[in-house]
Design goal:
Blueprint lengths: L4 H5 E4 L4 E4 L35 H13 L11 H14 L5 H24 L2
Antiparallel strand pairs: 1-2
Length: 125
């Protein structure tokens, strides 16, 4: 009696009364059993997606300034290792350096410009 082709793709488990598909597993040779090395995980292909974003230098700088000024985060956050892991690849791509000193200087410059605008408006009344 010849074996049906369907039977080559399925194994019947008598205890559970079920047929199990074995098509993804390598074909068993006579007296060779599937072991952990031949697990299904070997056949799974996963690609790590690369992050893509559209962010300019100005937008990145504004976001970092907002962290300190509006959100009340200390300047120390720009030196934290976790923040650095996130921000360093972005800074490299955008072409900017973000650190505690740069953000502090930018805040001082913008505060000076804002005070100058207010002074000019008040003197021109």
């Amino acid at each position: 009696m010849s074996k049906n082709k369907v039977h080559e793709e399925f194994t019947y488990n008598t205890k559970e009364n079920k047929s199990v598909c074995v098509e993804l597993l390598p074909k068993k040779k006579k007296s060779e059993h599937v072991n952990n090395d031949n697990s299904i995980l070997k056949y799974v292909v996963a690609k790590t997606p690369k992050a893509q974003f559209s962010l300019t230098k100005e937008q990145l700088l504004e976001a970092c300034l907002e962290l300190d000024t509006k959100n009340g985060r200390p300047l120390k956050i720009f030196e934290d290792s976790g923040f650095r892991k996130i921000i360093d690849p972005i800074c490299k791509t955008v072409g900017i350096t973000i650190n505690r000193q740069n953000i502090k200087e930018e805040i001082i410059q913008r505060a000076f410009a804002l005070r100058s605008q207010i002074t000019n408006r008040l003197t021109n009344r």
